[in-house]
Amino acid sequence: MLPAVEASSAPVRPADVLESRRSLTDRIGDFGLRWITAAAAAGSVALIGLIIYKVVDGARPAIGQFGLPFVWHETWNVVTNQFGALDFLVTTVYITAFAVLFAAPVSIAIGLYLSELAPSGVRGVVGSLVEMLAAIPSVVLGLWGILVLGPVVHDQFGPWLTSAFGWTPFFASRPISGSTMFTAVLVLTIMIVPITASISRDLFTQVPADIKEGAIGLGLTRWEMIRGVILPYTRGGLIAAILLGGGRAVGEAIAVTQVIGTTAHLTADLFQTGDTLASRIAAQYQAAASNLQVASLFYLGVILLVMSLVTNFAAQVIVRRFEIERRA
């Protein structure tokens, strides 16, 4: 005779209990959330793909006519239908580099002040005002550059910088008007600062408090703690933030068009006029005289897209690299 065996009941998992208690509405909500979020992600990818396709398709006649040499040819002649992007490409990189050079230390200093040094009552007010700069429309900032910043550059900055640094190629001449590459650099600097400063502040606040307190406990001053702990801990994110700010400056069109002077020529003198990829597109697209000119403007847009994609990809690579080094 076999001994009686009691039926063993398997333990019920909490997930199974919760699953049995979910209503039909909750199940539909889970299903809908999954597919809505997936559709949003797929939609963003599709939108980027459509933008790239449209810009490349619009540039196809110019690509077929000029090919890759379009990038390093200087001529932009509407009468003879000869177009090249070199002047605009070099000017774009040139003024963006100066804008990043000016904005990076200011942005990092703002982020450090708001995260480490500012009184609690000041942080919210100053932080909101800094972020409010990003909400100013570019056309308004361009008008301010024409009416206020341009005369200051012409009357004050120009003579002083030329007398002090006229021996360099950057300030070799005095500005003949307020519309100069230097004015565009200052406008772009103002546009970069809110983005980079906001990201920098968030990075600094994410540094573990025990690491900072430990450094102070070992006898380091606040400056030594910032230099030896906070900046090395966040350097990957800071570089990425600076690159993202530079990407913002590369594509700016309206404000730059209003203050740069729209004269394309290669020069290192910041007190000369110039033209960028974005400002040339904004200035000539509506009044283009031929289909080839329109296609050439689209070709400039393709170059801008490539620059923006490379900048964002480089920022992601840098962040991941420093994340791996920090975990190791």
Please sum up the structure shown:
The chain is mainly α and 328 residues long.
Write structural notes for this entry.
The protein is mainly α and 328 residues long. 73% of the residues lie in helices and 1% in strands. The chain has eleven helices and two strands, in the order H-H-E-E-H-H-H-H-H-H-H-H-H. The chain has helices at 14-21, 24-66, 86-117, 120-132, 138-165, 181-205, 209-217, 222-250, 254-260, 277-284, 291-327, and strands at residues 76-77, 82-83. The protein has a two-stranded antiparallel ribbon. The radius of gyration is 27 Å and the shape is globular. The N and C termini lie far apart (65 Å).
Major sheet: order of its strands? 1-2
The proportion of residues in beta strands is under 5%
Q: CA-to-CA gap between the ends? A: 65 Å
Approximate helicity band: over 70%
The structure class reads mainly alpha
Query: Low-confidence segments, ≥5 residues, pLDDT <50?
Result: none
Q: Mean pLDDT, rounded to whole units?
A: 82
The helix-strand sequence is HHEEHHHHHHHHH
| Main sheet attributes: strand count, strand direction, barrel closure | 2 strands, antiparallel
Shape: globular
Radius of gyration: 27 Å
What's the total count of β strands? 2
Count of individual helical segments = 11
